[in-house]
C-alpha cells in the first residue's frame, strides 16, 4: 500500500463545506471561507512538503486471522496474562474483575518514521463509570512485564498511549474541585500519551496527569461501529488521532514536536481490569513505515543517536497545561485580528503601489 494523503485536509474541507451551507452565505462567511481555504491548502502543503509514503510492515502488524500470534519464538507476537486470541480479536482482558493481559511484538523496531493504526473495541456490561480500567499501546524498551500501568510495568522506558476508561481522580471530588475549574476537568474515557525514561512513575490515582503530554476525550465504549486510534511518529513529531464516530475521519488528539524516541523498541498492547471491568479487544495493529524526505539539517539531527526517551521543553509543556488553554473565543479573535491585519497590509501595499505607479508615470510624462 502506498497512499499519500493529507488527512487534515480532508477533515478541514468538511468545515469549509459547512461554512458554505446556503443559510449562512453572507459576504463575511464567504470571505472567511476563502481565507480558511487558503489557510487549509497552505497548511496541507506545509504538512506534506516533504512527500510521504506509507508501507505496511507485516512483521510489526497484527491482523486477522492472527497467525503471527503464538508461543513459538518464530512467531511475531506473544501473548501474556489473561490475553486470548479468537478468530475475531485478541482479547486482552475479558469483562471480569482483576484481569490483565498483553500482546507484545517479538521484533524490535528500527524504523525512523512510522505510523501505528490500532483497531480496538472496548465493551462490557458496566454502566458509564462503572467499568475499567482501560488499555494501552506501547513502544518501549521493555516487553512482557506485568505491572500497574494498564497491565504494563511502571517506570517504563518509551512511549505509552492510554485509553483510560475510569476516572480515578474524579472520584475524589474534593481534590478535583480544588485543582480544576470546570473547563480543565476531563470527561472519560480519556486518551493520554506519556513518555517514560525508566524513572518516571505513572500516577494512577491522578489518571497520569502529572506526566501527560496531552490527550483528549474519546467516547469509545459499547459502540456499534469500529473505533480506531492512530499514532504517528515522524521527524520526532508525535501525533495521536482518533476515529471513533463511525465517519471515517480522523480527529486530532495530540500533536507534539520534539519527542525523542530511540530505535529498537517493541510495540505492544496491554489492558487491565480491577474491581470494575470491560472486554478490551485488539482487532488489528497495523504498522506503516513512512518514507520521508528530509532536509540536510534534519538528516544531521537524525544522526545523533537517541538512547533515552525524552521530550523537548517538558517544563514549558507542564506550565502551559496548568494555565487554561486558549478558549474558543480567544482563538476566534486571534484569527479575526490576524485576518484584518493581513487585509490591512494588502490594502496598504496596493495603495503604496498605486502611489508609486502614479509617481513613476508623472516622472515619465
Ligand atoms: C528522566 O526524567 C526525569 C524527569 O524529567 C529526570 O529528572 C531524570 O533525570 C530523567 N532520567 C534520565 C535517566 O534521563
Ligand atoms: C519508579 O521510580 C520511582 C522514582 O524513580 C521509584 O520511587 C519507584 O519505586 C519506582 N517504581 C518501580 C515499580 O520501580
Ligand atoms: Ca484511570
From TrEMBL:
Alphabetized Pfam families for the sequence: Lectin_leg-like (PF03388)
TM segment ranges: 329-353
Membrane topology: Single-pass type I membrane protein; Single-pass membrane protein
Classification lineage: Eukaryota, Metazoa, Chordata, Craniata, Vertebrata
Residue intervals of the L-type lectin-like domain: 54-290
PROSITE patterns, per database record: L_LECTIN_LIKE
Subcellular location: Endomembrane system; Golgi apparatus membrane
InterPro entries cross-referenced by the UniProt entry: ConA-like_dom_sf, Intracellular_Lectin-GPT, Lectin_leg
Keyword GTP-binding: no
Gene Ontology cellular component list: COPII-coated ER to Golgi transport vesicle; endoplasmic reticulum membrane; endoplasmic reticulum-Golgi intermediate compartment; Golgi membrane
Keywords: Disulfide bond, Glycoprotein, Golgi apparatus, Lectin, Membrane, Metal-binding, Signal, Transmembrane, Transmembrane helix
UniProt-recorded name of the protein: Lectin, mannose-binding 2-like a
GO biological process terms on file: endoplasmic reticulum to Golgi vesicle-mediated transport
GO MF, one example: D-mannose binding
Amino acid at each position: 500500500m502506498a497512499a499519500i494523503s493529507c488527512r487534515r485536509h480532508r477533515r478541514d474541507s468538511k468545515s469549509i463545506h459547512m461554512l458554505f451551507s446556503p443559510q449562512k452565505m453572507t459576504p463575511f462567511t464567504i470571505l472567511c471561507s476563502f481565507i480558511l481555504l487558503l489557510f487549509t491548502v497552505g497548511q496541507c502543503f506545509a504538512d506534506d512538503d516533504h512527500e510521504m509514503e506509507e508501507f505496511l510492515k507485516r512483521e510489526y502488524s497484527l491482523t486477522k486471522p492472527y497467525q503471527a500470534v503464538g508461543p513459538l519464538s518464530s512467531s511475531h507476537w506473544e501473548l501474556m496474562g489473561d490475553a486470548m486470541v479468537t478468530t475475531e480479536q485478541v482479547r486482552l482482558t475479558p469483562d471480569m474483575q482483576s484481569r490483565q493481559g498483553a500482546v507484545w511484538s517479538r521484533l524490535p523496531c528500527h524504523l525512523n518514521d512510522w505510523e501505528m493504526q490500532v483497531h480496538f473495541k472496548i465493551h462490557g456490561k458496566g454502566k458509564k463509570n462503572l467499568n475499567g480500567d482501560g488499555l494501552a499501546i506501547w513502544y518501549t524498551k521493555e516487553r512482557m512485564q506485568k505491572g500497574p500501568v494498564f497491565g504494563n510495568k511502571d517506570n517504563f522506558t518509551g512511549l505509552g498511549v492510554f485509553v483510560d476508561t475510569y476516572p480515578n481522580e474524579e472520584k475524589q471530588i474534593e481534590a478535583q474541585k480544588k485543582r480544576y475549574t470546570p473547563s480543565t476537568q476531563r470527561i472519560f474515557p480519556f486518551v493520554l500519551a506519556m513518555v517514560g525514561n525508566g524513572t518516571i512513575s505513572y500516577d494512577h490515582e491522578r489518571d497520569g496527569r502529572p506526566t501527560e503530554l496531552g490527550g483528549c476525550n474519546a467516547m469509545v465504549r459499547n459502540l456499534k461501529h469500529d473505533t480506531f486510534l492512530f499514532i504517528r511518529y515522524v521527524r520526532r513529531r508525535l501525533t495521536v488521532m482518533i476515529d471513533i464516530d463511525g465517519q471515517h475521519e480522523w480527529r486530532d488528539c495530540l500533536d507534539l514536536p520534539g519527542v525523542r524516541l530511540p530505535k529498537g523498541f517493541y510495540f505492544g498492547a496491554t489492558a487491565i481490569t480491577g474491581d470494575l471491568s470491560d472486554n478490551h479487544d485488539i482487532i488489528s495493529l497495523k504498522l506503516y513505515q513512512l518514507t520521508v524526505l528530509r532536509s540536510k539539517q534534519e538528516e544531521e539531527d537524525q544522526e545523533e543517536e537517541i538512547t533515552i526517551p525524552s521530550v523537548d521543553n517538558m517544563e514549558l509543556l507542564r506550565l502551559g497545561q496548568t494555565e487554561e488553554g486558549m478558549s474558543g473565543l480567544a482563538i476566534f479573535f486571534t484569527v479575526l485580528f490576524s485576518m484584518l491585519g493581513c487585509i490591512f497590509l494588502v490594502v496598504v501595499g496596493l495603495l503604496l503601489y498605486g502611489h508609486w505607479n502614479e509617481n513613476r508615470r508623472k516622472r515619465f510624462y
